[in-house]
Specification:
Distance between the termini: 24 Å
Largest sheet: none
Oligomer: single chain
Number of domains: 1
Helix content: 55-70%
Number of strands: 0
Strand content: under 5%
Structural class: mainly alpha
Number of helices: 6
């Protein structure tokens, strides 16, 4: 399974904390802990974990089942973003989350370009129907 964006974000926060403790980064230049609060990281991990679990239950999924799994994770991420003042996911994070969803589907053997084409969508539009972030 592809690496969750939230793992990279969490690793960045930890590295920043190490640099602060070592004195190689000033408090004024530190921002990742504010950008990625623990509540955002934990909630995002739970949502992505549920998505991974859902994908794991699909043996020969129909298009509706795949889109249902995508809808569930996107709605969960919408709620998380709302809980963080609508600013939990900035542009870079949005792109990472969309890439993660695409890659998780691909890792599961789902041909995302064919799936989206059958629904009249471009590959990068798979989350657009439900995504608020």
């Amino acid at each position: 399974m592809t690496e969750r964006p939230s793992k990279r974000w969490r690793d960045g926060v930890a590295e920043e904390a190490r640099r602060l403790a070592a004195g190689t980064l000033t408090v004024e230049d530190a921002f990742l802990a504010d950008l990625y609060p623990v509540s955002l990281l934990d909630a995002t991990d739970r949502a992505l974990g549920a998505f991974e679990s859902e994908l794991g239950t699909l043996r020969t999924p129909s298009d509706d089942q795949v889109f249902g799994a995508v809808e569930q994770v996107v709605l969960a991420l919408n709620a998380i973003n709302d809980q963080h003042g609508g600013a939990g996911y900035e542009t870079g994070e949005r792109e990472e989350l969309c890439h993660y969803i695409d890659q998780a589907l691909t890792d599961r053997g789902i041909d995302v370009p064919s799936l989206t084409a059958r629904s009249g969508l471009g590959r990068h539009e798979i989350t657009d129907e439900w995504r608020d972030w």
